[in-house]
């Protein structure tokens, strides 16, 4: 839950959201859609409830936010200061794939350092 409140994917439409909250809601939408394997039916239902192109745009951002923070770790979303929902929307698929590769690389480096530190004392 964000701020202790029950979340709804439609909360994305609130124009007064802080950027971090907006990314969290997009991530949450992506998480909900992941649970139903990004089914066409679920996406269509969402787009029917969301007017104009906003539904399609929200789905694109949700897909990017979910993939990025699954690769990088959800906790990184909370401290994010540079990635915005708009940037994720405007990013080309090629650029997003490069970002995703970099996110996975950084995550792997973090895990490697963690494991090295965790098991360093066990080898002595």
UniProtKB/TrEMBL annotation:
Source organism superkingdom: Eukaryota
Protein known as: Uncharacterized protein
Species of the source: Gigaspora margarita
């Amino acid at each position: 839950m964000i701020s202790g409140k029950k979340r709804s994917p439609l909360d994305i439409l609130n124009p007064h959201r802080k950027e971090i909250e907006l990314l969290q809601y997009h991530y949450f939408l992506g998480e909900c859609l992941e649970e139903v394997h990004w089914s066409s039916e679920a996406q269509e239902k969402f787009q029917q409830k969301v007017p104009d192109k906003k539904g399609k745009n929200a789905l694109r951002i949700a897909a990017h936010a979910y993939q990025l923070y699954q690769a990088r770790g959800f906790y990184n979303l909370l401290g994010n200061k540079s990635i915005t929902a708009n940037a994720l929307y405007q990013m080309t698929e090629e650029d997003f794939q490069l970002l995703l590769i970099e996110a996975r690389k950084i995550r792997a480096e973090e895990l490697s350092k963690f494991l090295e530190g965790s098991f360093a004392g066990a080898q002595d």
